[in-house]
């Protein structure tokens, strides 16, 4: 049943209308059908009340000519059914009666909502006049109904705006705004204003996202950049790399899992989650670390720093291939600008003499590759239901466990805290907390701004590494390093955080504001 | 003969109502010829069974059909029977019913032998 079709506006004045003739007597039915067609209208017939209601519910009609005395559902029953149906109650009904003896019936029919009556032996002029009057009223009512429906639509749109959860599309005002009358113009103005507000809010949110993301990138870089300086200090105190890594990861795991436990967010792990954490631990805890150890022995620190920053381009390529994020020339240009800044610093600061063995330069590319894989893994596979602290803690724990057999094998297992707390123990503690903090920030950054934007923390890390070196190891700081910061900031601006899919919610009430304003003036 | 049973003025009015096409009038007349015996038969059988409500409805319908085709006596008889049923003041319904059956047959015969081409406005 197509209820909606009955809402269609009736035929315009002068156009043929669609009339339903209801009479159980076939001779009367044929006569009425012929009479209606003679007046230029379309006529359909129904031979009882049930068939009439079926036809009315299935197709739109402009008026009904209804006999009262019928077997089964009689004319009164049909009238009652029509008037109690929201979609059908506005179709005018003209009852047909033999006037001489049915005055009572006519009165009853009109009380039940019949528009008019017609004697059985009507003449065509009378039929035309009564049908015409009914159709005019129906047209007027349809227009009125249509008008109220449009007002209702507009009010609904206002409610959506008031709820704060709107976008120019979910207001569904396009159809209304296209009409060229007062209400149409009101809808257009309303839609335009809503769109304006929405766009402004969106721009504001992007700006906030940008600022938050940039601060996070710098924070990740600053904390991460601390690691080489601390490692060099620890190495000076007689630690070995793998033994140190086990302690650092272990301390980070204890910190993170401790926080997760305190917040009651320790998760139950299924196979899917465990697979993810294991993959992450192997990439970040084992591959990245081992590659670093091998490569640092053969490649100059400055060149290695530069190579590590290439991870941004790798993440960009992966994200583009996997369609995780939009890959625009603007974002690529942003990554290049950052690279130029970092390259300038490294070039002026260190002697890049090109003495590194070429084969090791290629092997060094594995390092940014593993960083990029980690970034993409976090962006696309992270189990979002697991707490941030718990996630980082589990990964750190797993990577410490993976490194332990290796340390036992190479004899690099490093006993600590045996002879009280020395400078080395404090350093390891600091590195553990720093490692946890940088991963937490990085994880959060990837989750909110996307892997490509987050990859720029490699630039910040290089510059921060130099600054930390100056602060902790009394190394010299060139003015170019500060210039590079500007380049990195421009790069951040160009790359832009990946826009979030979260619904924009406006937490303010326009109606309240309007009422307040009118009260102030009253 | 048919002049006294069928009022041609009524048929002219009917022709005017349906738009003036003789073929349409013929279709209507054929329909009445098909259906009128059923209505008369129904009045007779329902009357025999004492189902006066059915008698009233059938009489009502036959009355309005008869008026349309100018069968004045038949229409009047039906109106009288309908009124009696309505007032529950049945005096001699068997006689009225018999007269209706007779008049219905006469009207039908008169309409059958009628040439629609002879009916025209004015």
Distinct helical segment count of chain B? 6
How much is the radius of gyration of chain A in Å? 39 Å
| Model regions low in confidence, pLDDT < 50 over at least 5 residues of chain A | 1-9
* Largest interface, counted by CB within 8 Å of the partner chain's CB: A-B, 22 and 25 residues
**Total beta strand runs of chain B:** 0
Uncertain runs of chain B are none
User: Average pLDDT of chain A, to the nearest integer?
Assistant: 84
- Specify the oligomeric state: heterodimer
**CA distance, first residue to last residue of chain B:** 22 Å
Fraction of residues in H or I helices of chain B: over 70%
* Major sheet details of chain B: none
Distance between the termini of chain A: 52 Å
Biggest β-sheet strands, sense, barrel of chain A: 5 strands, parallel
Fraction of residues in β-strands of chain A? under 5%
Provide the residue-averaged pLDDT of chain B.
88
By helix and strand content of chain B, what is the structural category? mainly alpha
Beta-strand portion of chain B reads under 5%
Structure description:
With 522 residues, chain A is mainly alpha-helical. Helix content of chain A is 68%, strand content 5%. Chain A has 20 helices and 5 strands. A 5-stranded parallel β-sheet of chain A has the order 2-1-3-4-5, sandwiched between helices. In chain A, helix 1 links the parallel strand 1 (18-22) and strand 2. In chain A, helix 7 (182-236) packs parallel to helix 18 (457-473), helix 10 (301-309) runs antiparallel to helix 12 (329-349) and helix 11 (311-321) crosses helix 14. The longest helix of chain A is centred in the middle third of the chain and has 55 residues, at 182-236. Mean pLDDT of chain A is 84; it is low at 1-9. Chain B is mostly helical and 122 residues long. Chain B has helices at residues 2-5, 8-18, 22-49, 52-68, 72-87, 93-112. In chain B, helix 3 runs antiparallel to helix 4 and helix 5 (72-87) packs antiparallel against helix 6. Chain B starts with a helix and ends in a 10-residue tail after the last helix. The chains are: A mainly alpha (522), B mainly alpha (122). Chain A binds chain B through residues 24-28, 30-31, 34-35, 37-38, 69, 71, 98, 100-101, 120-124, 127, and chain B through 13-14, 16-20, 24, 27-28, 31-32, 35, 57, 60-61, 63-65, 67-68, 79, 82-83, 86.
């Amino acid at each position: 049943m197509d209820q909606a079709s009955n809402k269609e506006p009736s035929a315009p004045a002068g156009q043929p209308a669609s009339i339903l003739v209801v009479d159980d007597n076939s001779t009367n039915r044929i006569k009425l059908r012929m009479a209606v067609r003679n007046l230029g209208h379309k006529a359909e017939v129904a031979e009882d009340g049930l068939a009439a209601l079926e036809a009315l519910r299935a197709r739109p009609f402009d008026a009904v000519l209804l006999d009262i005395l019928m077997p089964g559902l009689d004319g009164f029953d049909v009238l009652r059914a029509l008037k109690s149906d929201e979609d059908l109650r506005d179709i005018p009904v003209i009852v047909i009666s033999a006037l001489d003896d049915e005055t009572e019936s006519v009165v009853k029919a009109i009380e039940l909502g019949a528009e008019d009556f017609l004697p059985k032996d009507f003449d065509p002029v009378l039929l035309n006049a009564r049908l015409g009057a009914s159709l005019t009223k129906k047209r007027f009512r349809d227009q009125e109904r249509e008008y109220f429906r449009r007002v209702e639509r507009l009010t609904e749109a206002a409610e959506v705006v008031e709820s704060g959860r709107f976008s120019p599309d979910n207001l569904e005002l396009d159809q209304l705004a296209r009409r060229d009358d007062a209400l149409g113009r009101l809808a257009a103005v309303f839609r335009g204003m809503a769109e304006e507000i929405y766009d402004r809010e969106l721009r504001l949110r992007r700006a906030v996202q940008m600022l938050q993301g940039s601060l996070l990138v710098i924070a990740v870089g600053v904390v991460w950049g601390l690691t080489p300086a601390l490692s060099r200090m620890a190495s000076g105190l007689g630690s070995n790399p793998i033994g140190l890594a086990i302690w650092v990861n272990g301390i980070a795991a204890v910190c993170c899992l401790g926080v997760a436990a305190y917040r009651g967010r320790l998760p139950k792990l299924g196979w899917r989650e465990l697979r993810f954490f294991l993959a992450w631990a192997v990439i970040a805890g084992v591959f990245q670390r081992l590659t670093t150890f091998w490569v640092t022995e053969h490649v100059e620190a400055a060149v290695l720093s530069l190579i590590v920053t290439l991870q941004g381009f790798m993440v960009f390529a992966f994200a583009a291939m996997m369609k995780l994020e939009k890959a625009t020339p603007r974002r690529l240009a942003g990554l290049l600008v950052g690279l130029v800044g970092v390259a300038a610093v490294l070039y002026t600061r260190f002697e890049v003499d090109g003495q590194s063995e070429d084969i090791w330069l290629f092997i060094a590319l594995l390092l940014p590759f593993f960083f990029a894989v980690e970034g993409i893994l976090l962006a696309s596979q992270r189990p979002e239901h697991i707490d941030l602290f718990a996630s980082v803690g589990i990964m750190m724990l797993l990577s410490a466990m993976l490194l332990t057999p290796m340390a036992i094998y190479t004899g690099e297992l490093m006993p600590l805290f045996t002879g009280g707390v020395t400078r080395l123990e404090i350093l390891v503690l600091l590195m553990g907390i720093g490692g946890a903090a940088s991963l937490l920030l990085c994880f959060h950054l990837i989750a909110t701004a996307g892997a490509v934007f987050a990859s720029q923390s490699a630039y910040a890390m290089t510059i921060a590494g130099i600054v930390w070196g100056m602060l902790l190891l009394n190394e010299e700081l060139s003015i170019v390093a500060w210039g590079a910061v500007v380049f990195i900031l421009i790069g951040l601006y160009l790359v832009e955080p990946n826009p979030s899919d979260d619904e924009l919610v406006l937490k303010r009430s326009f109606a309240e504001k309007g009422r307040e304003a009118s009260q102030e003036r009253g | 003969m048919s002049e006294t049973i069928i009022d041609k003025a009524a048929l002219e009015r009917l022709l005017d109502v349906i738009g003036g096409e003789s073929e349409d009038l013929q279709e209507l007349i054929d329909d009445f010829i098909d259906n009128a015996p059923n209505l008369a038969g129904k009045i007779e059988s329902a009357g025999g069974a004492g189902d006066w409500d059915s008698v009233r409805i059938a009489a009502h319908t036959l009355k309005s059909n008869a008026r349309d085709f100018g069968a004045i006596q038949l229409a009047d008889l039906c109106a009288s029977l309908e009124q009696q049923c309505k007032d529950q003041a049945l005096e001699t319904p068997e006689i009225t019913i018999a007269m209706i059956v007779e008049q219905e047959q006469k009207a039908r015969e008169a309409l059958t032998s009628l040439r629609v081409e002879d009916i025209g406005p004015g």
